[in-house]
Design goal:
globular; 5-stranded mixed beta sheet; about 700 residues; alpha+beta; 4 domains
Length: about 700
C-alpha cells in the first residue's frame, strides 16, 4: 500500500519513533478489520481511513488523532468494539473513535431525527475533545473528493449537508483550506453544470490575466521595498464557489467579476501590517468602505488580517490581505494550530478558550430544542454568524451575528443581565429592546432587580444563547407557577372528596410517585396546573392510597382567581374577561387554567378540557385588557378627544386601529382597566363626547 508508506513518511517528520510504530500497527489493525470490504469506487476500504489520516498530517496532529483516524470506521462497520481498541491503543483513542461513530441500534422515525441525533452526539464528543471534529472534517473531505461513484440523489444530500453544516464548522474553527475545498466540492455536486462552466471560464481567465497579475505583484513588491517594509507577497486565486456567490449576490456575469485574484502580504509584526497598508494606499487608491481591520477586532475563529480593496491598473479592483506570519499560521490552521505550532502563543490559547466557550453555548442551546427540525435550524443559524462588532460601555468589543438585537447583546454579556434587562441605550439614546445592532454601536443595558424575561423576546432574538436562556427561565417560572396552581386545584378536588390536604401522608405520596413513575411531588402538581393530569383523578389516587375514610363529599368546589398566578392562569383573548364578569375556567393540556366569560361564544361551540368553577378575588390590583369599538362622526380632532377622555378616566391605550363604516369611522381600542366598574366609568366619559355615536365592548373574536 503506497498510501500507507506515504503516511508513515509524513508522520516520521514530526512524531517520535515509538509513535510512528503505533501508527504502523494501527494501519495493519485497520487493514485486517476492513479486509474484504470495498468502497463504492471498488477500491479496498482501508484506502479511505489512510487518506483521512493523511489529510491530518499537515496539521501535525498527535499520534492518538492519527490512530483514531485510521480506526474511525471499524466500530461502525466491523465486529471490532471500542473495548478492543482501548485494550490495543489506549482509552483516549477509543474515546475519539467512539465520538466519531454514528448512533447504532436505535430506531428513528425519520432520517432527520437520526441526522439530528448523530450531530448532537458528535457535538458532545467535540466539546470534550476538539480532535473529534478535526478527524470528522478530514473524513468528510475525503468522502467529498470521492463522491462521484455514488448515485445522484445521495451525492446531493451529502453535498447539501456538507455545505450547510461541515463547511461552516470548518470555517468557525479557522480551518481555511478545508473550508474552501468543502465549499467547492459541495458546489460541484449541487450544481454540476454551473461548476463546470465556471471552472472552464476561470482556466481561460487565468491565462489571459497572468501578465496583469505579474505586473501587480511586481508593483506591490517594489512599493514595499521602497518604503522599507520587509514582506513576502503572493497572488492567490479565489475559489470557484466564492466567485459564484459574488456573481449571484451582485447579479454579475463572469466577465464582470474582475477581482478573481487576491494578493497576500506577509510581514514581521503588527506595526509592519499598518505600514504596508499605508504604502499600498499610496500606490493604488483604496475603494471607500472596503477597508476591514480584523487585527484590532479579530473574527470569532481567531482570524486576523487587514483587508483592503484597491483601484489597480486598467481599473481592475485588487483585494489585498496583510498579516503577520503568526496570523497566517492561525488563518490557515485555526484551532489546529495548537498542534501545528506548540509555542504556547497567547493568541492560540485564546482561540482554544473561545472555541470551547462557543461549543458549550452551542450545546446548551441545542439541548433545549424540542424537535429535530428545531435542532438543525439552531445549528445552522449558529454556524452562519456574519458578525457585527459591538462596544460595551467600558470599551470591550463583543461579536454578535448580523441581525442581533439589544436582548441578544444583554445575554452575551451575562445571563443575569439578559434576564433582568428592561431598557437599552444605543449610542447614548434610549431605544426599544428589539432594536437591531449595527457595527460599532455602543450599547448600555439598563436592568431592574425584579425584572424577568418577556415571552415576546423569543419572536426577535437571533442568538441561540439568548433563546435558550429565555426558554429555560420561562419554563422554570411556568413550572413553579403551575405547581402552585396545581396545589390549589388538588386541594379543591380533595375537599370535594371529603379530605384535607394535610391528611394525605408521605407514604400516600410516595406510593403515587412509584405508581406514576414521576420523580417529585412538584412535577405532579405542575402537571395538574398545566392540565396534563386531572386533579380529581390524582385526588382519588391519593385518597385510595390512604387509610382515612372520606368525609362528606362537598359539591361545587370553587377556585379563586387572584390575578397574580402568572403564566399558570391565562385570560382568554377571545372574550377578554375582567373582574366583575361572570367567569368559568377550562383546564387545557399544556396551557394550564384558561379563564373565559361564562357566555363566551367559543365555549358554546364546544371545547376540549376540564371545566372548573372559578370566581374573582375581591382584592385584585392588576389591570386587564379589554376591547372597545366606538362609532364616531368623521370629524377633525375626534381621536384626540377620545384619547383625552380615556386618559382622564385613568386608563391606558394598548392599541388603536381605524376602519371606515359608511358615513362613520369605527375606532377599535384595546384598553387597560382594573375591573368592570372602571370600564363603566370609561364608557360613561366617552358617551359624553358629542361625536361618539355608539360604544360596544367587543367580547369575542368570533
Amino acid at each position: 500500500m503506497a498510501d500507507a508508506e506515504f503516511l508513515i513518511d509524513e508522520v516520521s517528520g514530526y512524531l517520535k519513533p515509538e509513535d510512528v510504530e503505533h501508527i504502523r500497527a494501527a494501519i495493519e489493525f485497520s487493514r485486517i478489520a476492513h479486509q474484504g470490504q470495498t468502497r463504492q469506487s471498488g477500491d479496498p476500504y482501508v484506502t479511505h481511513p489512510i487518506a483521512v489520516a493523511r489529510i491530518l498530517t499537515p496539521l501535525h496532529l498527535d499520534a492518538q488523532s492519527i490512530i483514531a483516524a485510521l480506526l474511525h470506521d471499524v466500530v461502525e462497520d466491523t465486529e471490532i468494539t471500542t473495548e478492543q481498541i482501548a485494550e490495543q491503543f489506549g482509552k483516549p483513542v477509543a474515546e475519539l473513535v467512539g465520538g466519531l461513530s454514528k448512533l447504532e441500534k436505535i430506531h428513528f422515525e425519520t432520517r432527520e431525527d437520526a441526522q439530528a441525533e448523530n450531530f448532537r452526539k458528535m457535538l458532545l464528543a467535540m466539546a470534550r475533545d476538539v480532535r473529534v471534529i478535526l478527524i470528522k472534517l478530514a473524513d468528510r473531505l475525503h468522502n467529498m473528493r470521492t463522491l462521484d461513484s455514488m448515485r445522484q440523489d445521495k451525492c446531493e444530500r451529502i453535498a447539501r449537508e456538507t455545505m450547510e453544516i461541515y463547511a461552516p464548522i470548518a470555517n468557525r474553527l479557522g480551518l481555511n483550506e478545508i473550508y474552501l475545498e468543502l465549499q467547492d466540492l459541495s458546489f460541484k455536486h449541487l450544481h454540476p453544470n454551473r461548476y463546470t462552466v465556471l471552472a472552464k471560464a476561470l482556466k481561460v481567465a487565468r491565462g489571459n490575466r497572468r501578465e496583469v497579475v505579474g505586473k501587480i505583484l511586481d508593483a506591490i513588491r517594489g512599493q514595499l521595498e521602497k518604503k522599507q517594509v520587509q514582506a513576502e507577497v503572493t497572488g492567490r486565486e479565489k475559489n470557484i464557489y466564492s466567485i459564484y456567490k459574488k456573481m449571484q449576490l451582485k447579479s454579475l456575469a463572469f466577465s464582470e467579476v474582475l477581482d478573481i485574484y487576491g494578493f497576500r502580504v506577509l510581514v514581521e509584526d503588527t506595526n509592519a501590517c499598518y505600514l504596508a497598508l499605508g504604502a499600498l494606499h499610496a500606490l493604488y487608491k483604496p475603494i471607500p468602505g472596503k477597508i476591514k481591520d480584523y487585527i484590532a477586532i479579530p473574527k470569532s475563529n481567531g482570524y486576523q488580517s487587514l483587508h483592503s480593496t484597491l483601484f489597480g491598473p486598467f481599473g481592475t479592483p485588487i483585494e489585498v490581505q496583510i498579516r503577520t506570519r503568526e496570523m497566517h499560521k492561525i488563518a490557515d490552521a485555526g484551532v489546529a494550530s495548537h498542534w501545528l505550532y506548540k509555542n504556547g502563543h497567547a493568541t492560540i490559547s485564546e482561540l482554544h478558550k473561545k472555541t470551547h466557550q462557543w461549543l458549550q453555548e452551542l450545546l446548551e442551546s441545542l439541548n433545549d430544542s424540542r424537535t429535530s427540525a428545531e435542532f438543525m435550524e439552531h445549528l445552522k443559524v449558529d454556524l452562519f454568524p456574519d458578525a457585527v462588532y459591538i462596544f460595551t460601555p467600558k470599551g470591550k468589543i463583543l461579536s454578535l451575528p448580523r441581525g442581533a438585537t439589544a436582548v441578544d447583546f444583554a445575554y452575551s454579556v451575562h445571563t443575569d443581565i439578559g434576564n433582568r434587562c428592561i431598557a437599552v441605550k444605543i449610542n447614548h439614546e434610549l431605544v426599544p429592546l428589539r432594536s437591531e445592532l449595527k457595527n460599532g454601536d455602543r450599547v448600555e443595558i439598563i436592568t431592574a432587580a425584579h425584572a424577568k424575561p418577556n415571552p415576546a423576546w423569543l419572536t426577535y432574538v437571533t442568538t441561540n444563547k439568548a433563546r435558550s436562556h429565555i426558554r429555560h427561565f420561562l419554563k422554570t417560572m411556568q413550572s413553579g407557577e403551575s405547581a402552585q396552581l396545581g396545589e390549589r386545584l388538588l386541594g379543591q378536588a380533595l375537599t370535594a372528596l371529603g379530605f384535607k390536604s394535610a391528611e394525605i401522608s408521605e407514604a400516600c405520596w410516595n406510593k403515587l410517585l412509584r405508581d406514576t413513575g414521576v420523580k417529585t411531588r412538584q412535577e405532579i402538581l405542575a402537571d395538574i396546573g398545566l392540565g396534563r393530569r386531572l386533579n380529581m383523578v390524582v385526588a382519588r389516587q391519593l385518597a385510595c392510597n390512604g387509610d382515612a375514610a372520606p368525609g362528606d363529599i362537598v359539591s361545587n368546589p370553587v377556585i379563586t382567581i387572584l390575578g397574580t398566578e402568572g403564566m399558570a392562569v391565562q385570560f382568554a383573548t377571545c372574550c377578554r374577561p375582567i373582574p366583575g364578569d361572570p367567569i368559568i375556567g377550562v383546564i387545557k393540556s399544556g396551557q394550564g387554567l384558561v379563564v373565559h366569560t361564562h357566555d363566551c361564544p367559543l365555549l358554546r361551540k364546544g371545547h376540549s378540557g376540564q371545566w372548573l368553577d372559578v370566581v374573582w378575588d375581591k382584592h385584585i390590583t392588576r389591570t386587564f385588557a379589554v376591547n372597545l369599538k366606538l362609532l364616531v362622526a368623521n370629524q377633525r380632532g375626534v381621536l384626540a378627544k377620545v384619547a383625552a377622555a380615556i386618559a382622564d378616566a385613568e386608563s391606558n391605550i394598548e392599541n388603536v386601529s381605524f376602519a371606515n363604516e359608511g358615513e362613520y369611522t369605527a375606532l377599535h381600542f384595546t384598553l387597560e382597566v382594573n375591573n368592570r366598574l372602571h370600564l363603566a366609568t370609561i364608557m360613561r366619559s366617552l358617551r359624553m363626547i358629542p361625536e361618539v355615536i355608539r360604544i360596544f365592548r367587543v367580547q369575542s373574536a368570533v
